[in-house]
Design a protein that fits this description.
By secondary structure, the chain is α/β, with parallel strands linked by helices. The protein has helices at 19-27, 29-43, 55-59, 96-105, 115-118, 144-158, 169-172, 175-184, 214-223, and strands at residues 48-49, 67-71, 107-109, 122-126, 131-132, 162-167, 189-194, 235-237. The strands form 3 sheets. A 4-stranded parallel beta sheet has the order 4-2-6-7, sandwiched between helices. Helix 1 (19-27) packs across helix 2. 35% of the residues are buried.
């Protein structure tokens, strides 16, 4: 079973542009607190996902980021989480939220893995980067948020043009950080907000996820600025 078996962040690969922010976090009080917490939980036999918490940073170099999708925490079922927000490993049944994402995109995927998106400039970042089996949000407020807020600020200060797709109240709470940072650094951003793609909220007001048109808006806005190929789809159309 793929799970986190040791706290060894020095062995986790990072694409170009992320190293300083990650190193600074790991040396910070929040980083040391998180390390202690995870070592304790691993020693206690907790089953923790995903096996590589920083995988999103290994697949998408900072200079390549042109879109950000922010999730809350990894999937907590066996074999689901692969270190990318909303993505599941190949061969894993699609969770309901991911089904709705593909429905909004207008495709029937061959796989639920979004690795190809990550390789085409979409940073698939969860606010919290680990979770225990069967216990959603079990690692919330243990330190990860200090790192992911730092990463969001780094992207907002650096990436341009960049689209931020914020689905649900948890993700939308990051809009002020993103907008203020981008504005102060003269970066061109588009912040799109809608309900979470979960079946519980995907069709509800005030901004239902299904029918929000975010993917079309993002592609058009980026294309007008010379960026194409974001959100690639290798599947048959619905």
């Amino acid at each position: 079973m793929d799970q986190l078996r040791a706290w060894t962040p020095d062995q986790w690969p990072l694409a170009e542009g992320w190293q300083e922010a990650v190193a600074d976090f790991l040396a910070s009080p929040q980083g040391r607190q998180l390390a202690g917490f995870l070592r304790e939980r691993i020693a206690a036999g907790a089953v923790i996902y995903p096996p590589q918490p920083l995988r999103a940073l290994s697949l998408t170099p900072l200079a390549s980021v042109h879109a950000v999708i922010l999730g809350q925490d990894p999937y907590h079922g066996p074999g689901q989480a692969e270190g990318l927000a909303f993505s599941v490993a190949e061969g894993v049944k699609l969770p309901p939220s991911l089904k709705n994402i593909f429905q909004e995109l207008g495709c029937q995927p061959a796989s639920g893995s979004l690795v190809d998106w990550a390789r085409h400039g979409v940073l698939l970042l969860n606010a919290c980067l680990t979770v225990e089996q069967g216990q959603p949000a079990s690692h919330a407020k243990k330190g990860w948020e200090a790192l992911t807020d730092r990463l969001l600020a780094l992207v907002a200060a650096t990436a341009t043009p960049c689209v931020y797709l914020l689905w649900g109240a948890h993700a939308q709470a990051k809009a002020p950080l993103i907008e203020a940072t981008a504005r102060s650094h003269g970066r061109e951003v588009l912040v799109l907000q809608a309900n979470h793609p979960s079946p519980l909220s995907a069709r509800r007001p005030p901004v239902p996820f299904l029918g929000c048109g975010h993917f079309a808006q993002a592609r058009e806005w980026l294309a007008q600025r010379g960026v194409t190929g974001v959100f690639p789809v290798d599947s048959r159309l619905l």
